[in-house]
Amino acid sequence: MSRTAKVATTAGAFVAAGVVATLLNGRQRHQRRLRRGEDVEFGSVHSDPVQVTATDGVLLNAEIDEAERKTPTVVFVHGWVESIDVWHYQRLALRGKVRMVFVDLRSHGESGRSYLDNSSIPHLADDLRTVISTLVPRGPIVLVGHSMGGMAIMELAAAEPKQFGRRVKGVVLIATSSGKLMRSSPALRYLIPFLRVASPVLDWGRTFNSYSIVRRWGLGPNAQERHVDMTNELILKSPTHVLMDFYPNFVSLDLTSGLEVMGKATTVVVGGTADLITPIKHSRRLAEAIPGAKLVALDDVGHMVMFEEHEKVTEVIEDVLEGLT
């Protein structure tokens, strides 16, 4: 057999193996989805989309759930490689009780793409400012942010300090950090060097055994299979460029300048003791740095707090709302 033929045969075997692995993974994902036993299918909770144009022209996808109670408005900001769907349980629990605004961050969900040079935390904070001015032009606001979404809120506090206490009356920061993240996050320390040598083939390769990787790094040791599967489904919808374009934010992250002003709003920090991405000490540090902030530490819970302890997260939001009335 010629060298060319051998190469072709080897390549063909590799492709065939990849196709088989992809099919098996697809079947496993389908079976796990069937086992969820959902009353409301994950990813199906939506309202009519609204487009908001960011200051640099990126089109942001947002949705509004109206309610008889018009104020305050709760604005939800998701994290890295997530989308509006991450608020599945909170949205179902609070629908009709309070006005809610959900936004897909740039390059995430149904929003338009950004690139490396416009995928910074300040860009996200500016997007949040634009969403608020467009969709919540008046009245009190409660901001709820997970992970990178919480970072956008902290950056907004530094950029718009007068808004906190005046319009922003409440803040819920979930599994997030104000800095020094690369020193203590084993998940990010593992991921960042890998991304530096990554290629577009990751879009295909990420589906291989992604469930077990997500379970290991994203959730706590006692997480339900449905919550791991929901997280896996959510992350796999984000293309690899989202990983590549946003990861530099976490290398030299420092959002401490906005923390003191956040004390003008009722602030609750929620973190899981088994979080490997934003370890619980980051939540403790935030609660200590934000004047008057309350810490809610959830035992054996990982990064995806909104799934694993969805009732508790909803309760925290409801308590903040009740305290404003």
From TrEMBL:
InterPro entries with a match to the protein in the record: AB_hydrolase_1 (IPR000073), AB_hydrolase_fold (IPR029058), AB_hydrolase_sf (IPR050266)
Gene3D superfamilies: alpha/beta hydrolase
Keywords noted in UniProt: Hydrolase
Pfam families named among the record's database cross-references: Abhydrolase_6
GO terms, molecular function: monoacylglycerol lipase activity
Gene Ontology process terms (BP): acylglycerol catabolic process
Chain ranges of the AB hydrolase-1 domain: 74-314
Keyword Hydrolase tagged: yes
Cellular compartments per GO CC: membrane
Superkingdom in the source lineage: Bacteria
Name used for this protein in its record: Alpha/beta hydrolase
